[in-house]
Specification:
Strand order of the largest sheet: 4-5-6-7
Oligomer: single chain
CATH architecture of the largest domain: Beta Barrel
Low-confidence stretches: 1-6, 133-139, 367-372, 398-410
Distance between the termini: 112 Å
CATH class of the largest domain: Mainly Beta
Structural class: alpha+beta
Mean pLDDT: 77
Shape: elongated
CATH topology of the largest domain: Lipocalin
Number of domains: 3
């Protein structure tokens, strides 16, 4: 009986051995497949290494791209050129090609895509206004411009906001004239007018905008002027009062409620300096610079600059810092007058394009300290230039995206 049991035990051991071998063979096959198969460990490790290497190259490219965007804010082309130059110092065969919405990059054997948003160039700049440092007593620059599409943009230290996209009532307006800026109850504001209304645009410490309708001509004098259009508004210290000039030549003083009919409508407000005296002038549609007297308006064209503008029609008289005055005539010629020496320079003779095209607007822009300000010169076709105060250099500012309103001269 013991022999029979022994044979039975030996038989079980042999079967177990066979089963174990089979299991080991199966496990070996699985292990080999996991290691060297199409989705094996070795392949996955190799892919991980490849992905890591690509990530490193992408980080390098993104670093170069960040530098390019910081150094060249004007055009995407210059940014890509800078990017390619930086990459080729590490990989001479590197390329960067602009496609729609992406930049296709080849760098150290890898294909990399960079996405970008290209701001569309505005059709042009019609109007520009700069306040300098006004926001919360900090080093902030506040600028506005109106494009040919009749959109008003505001910029605070490079952060831009389209005001006409925020406020529905401004979307259909075709005229925005900024009169000036001020401070009230420790809040800063910009005052501007359209054809029918005068607005106050407030800016908060957090750079948020609030629009307030200050004057509506439909409510003046019991609606007497609701059919008229504003040609200019000259505010008093209290911005809710002042004198409204209408396109038909009517002048209405809000505070005194007096009305005067002028021979010509007032189209602009200007400041000139003569014999060290500051003179406020109102420019009418006949090109006359008028000073205000007890007897009404009196033209100074015949006496200003020894009568040089006697037979000319002035459209703009703008002080540029405390050193210069610019005068623009209706034939599109601009002049720069040195207040101290009384010398006059024809700006339009300084540049070939200025000779060929009329100057339509000219503005003082800058950082508000009168030492580093620039002149913005806008030509017909709404093409804009910057120039230093002494006009030693002109630079085209019709750049990609929102114009750099504080572009430094070299």
């Amino acid at each position: 009986m013991s022999k029979k049991i022994k044979e039975q035990v030996e038989g079980i051991t042999l079967i177990a051995l066979v089963v174990t071998i089979i299991i080991l063979l199966i496990l070996s096959g699985v292990a080999i497949n996991l290691s060297i198969g199409s989705n094996g460990i070795f392949i996955r490790v190799q892919e991980s290494v490849e992905e890591y290497n690509k990530k490193q190259k992408e980080e390098e490219v993104n670093m170069y791209w960040g530098e390019a965007q910081l150094n060249y804010k004007d055009t995407i082309e210059k940014q890509v050129e800078y990017l390619q130059d930086k990459m080729r110092k590490q990989d001479p065969s590197a390329t960067a090609i602009i496609n729609e919405g992406v930049i296709d990059v080849t760098y150290k054997g890898y294909d990399i895509k960079l996405s970008y948003i290209e701001e569309k160039i505005p059709q042009g700049i019609k109007y520009l206004y700069s306040t300098g440092n006004i926001v919360d007593d900090q080093e902030k620059i506040l600028n506005f411009y109106v494009t040919s599409e009749y959109k008003m943009y505001a910029e605070v230290d490079g952060k831009t906001t389209c005001i006409t996209d925020i406020y529905q009532e401004l979307k259909d307006e075709k005229t925005f004239t900024i009169i000036g800026n001020g401070n009230e109850s420790d809040k800063e504001y910009i005052l501007f007018f359209t054809k029918k209304k005068v607005y106050t645009l407030w800016i908060s410490e957090t750079e948020e905008w609030t629009l307030e309708k200050t004057i509506d001509i439909e409510n003046l004098a019991e609606g007497k002027y609701k059919e008229k259009n504003i040609s200019y508004f000259l505010p008093l210290v209290d911005k809710e009062n002042g004198t409204i000039f209408f396109e038909d030549g009517t002048m209405y003083n809000i505070e005194t409620k007096q009305e005067v009919s002028l021979e010509n409508k007032i189209i602009n407000f200007g400041v000139i300096m003569e014999n060290e005296n500051t003179q406020i002038v109102l420019i009418d549609s006949n090109g006359q610079m008028n000073k205000m007297t007890e007897n009404g308006l009196e033209s100074i064209n015949e006496t200003f600059q020894n009568g040089f503008f006697k037979d000319k029609k002035v459209t703009i008289a703008m002080p540029i810092s405390n050193k210069y005055i610019t005068i623009v005539t209706n034939d599109g010629i601009a002049y720069l007058i040195d207040i101290n020496t009384n010398n006059m320079t024809c700006i339009s003779d300084l540049n070939e394009e200025l000779k060929e095209k009329k100057v339509t607007n000219i503005f003082n822009i800058g950082n508000g300290n009168f030492q580093e300000d620039y002149i913005a010169i806008i030509l017909e076709g709404d093409k804009a230039y910057y120039a230093t105060q002494n006009l030693q250099e002109l630079i085209n500012i019709n750049i990609n995206g929102f114009p750099e309103l504080h572009l430094k001269m070299s």
